[in-house]
Amino acid sequence: MKRTIAVVSAGLRRPSSTRLLADRLAASAERELRESGDEVETRVIEVREHGHDLVDNLVSGYPGSKLQDALETVIGADGLIAVTPTLAATNSGLFKTFFEVLDLLDDHALADKPVLIGATGGTARHSLMLENAVRPLFTYLRGVVVPTSVFAAPEDWGGAAAPDLLAQRIDRAAAQFATEIGRRGARGAHDLFAPTPFADLLGGG
């Protein structure tokens, strides 16, 4: 079965440790799915590339073409990997705005969709931000957030044992994510502005 993974990375710079973590999570998830016999396509969305369009959408109610493509990629994906930098001890505003806009345009966008969450930050003391801020966000949006979240502080990238410990957390989270995807049928492409069939309008009352 062909599977699509949407990867949303909200790093503010290039190169970005947030994107690096997102790529590693995606690579591990791809490996898990391929071992189960699935074909996998991964599509990466860099939120910072859509910053102006996100603000415009909040004002006008309509996304630009590039933002619309990004949002439809998330909606049509079989699973979502979402990674944010930690700013002021919480997720970035740009990250949250992306999913607020998604919810405004389609409040079923993430319903029953497997979600793997991750974050990067300057200190491991902020790692609970994932449980206090990010997990509740996706639970509210009705995504199925896998039990293991992955936080990477600077010390997780270096040191004798740190890379192995980070890799273990990544692989555990990716295995849970792939299992959730495997329990569901493949999703199709989605058009945010496709007209509602007349029969459905009549059926709605």
UniProtKB/TrEMBL annotation:
Keywords: Flavoprotein, FMN, Oxidoreductase. Residues 5-157 form the NADPH-dependent FMN reductase-like domain. Its EC number is 1.5.1.-. Pfam families: FMN_red. The keyword rRNA-binding does not apply. It comes from the Bacteria. GO terms for molecular function: oxidoreductase activity. The keyword Oxidoreductase applies. This is FMN reductase. It comes from Sphaerisporangium dianthi.
